[in-house]
Prior knowledge:
Layout lengths: L2 H4 E9 L3 H18 L4 H27 L3 H5 L4 H12 L9 H17 L19 H6 L5 H5 L4 H20 L13 E9 L1
Antiparallel strand pairs: 1-2
Helix pairs in contact: 2-3, 3-5, 3-9, 6-9
Amino acid sequence: xxxxxxRRLSVEHEREVVTYAELxxxxxxxxxxxxxxxxxxxWQFLSSIILSAFAFEAFLNYVGSEVVxxxxxxxxxxxxxxxxxxLCIALGVDIGGRHERQNQxxxxxxxxxxxxxxxxxxxxxxxxxxxxxxxHYEARILKRPLTEWEExxxxxxxxxxxxxxxxxxxxxxxxAMPTPKRELxxxxxxxxxxxxxxx
Length: 199
């Protein structure tokens, strides 16, 4: 065996994964793709909404594990909305009342996420409507009824609203966190190394 073939590398990696930041980035990328390409965009908007919901839950768990000593006990016991309220109290953050837009958005987001995560087949049968026979009557006849989540992905408005409102909440909680703290939305650190070894 030649000298070259006896030489081997020992390669080591270490990577910190900041889940909420990864999911937040992915949700933004997918939303932009849907905005750029209208064909199939509804599925991009759906994906962005779901990834944003996961980012929200991951962010709450990140903050909770940093500031609440018994977060592991609370993590599975509380809904995302209750986790948010708990963290707001712990950090002295005011994100407004139930009727503030961002709180309404969060409620809608969590409901949409739950509807899809625990989805069931259903029969949609809206009440009959009266339609004038004109140039558009065929479109009204052929228009299919949609579920609440399907309505939300017909355009980018809800996905955009989710990102705007969640970012406000993220920034408010992050600002109140004790220092030292990582920058908001910073991805984790990855380090690699290699050393020669003889076989």
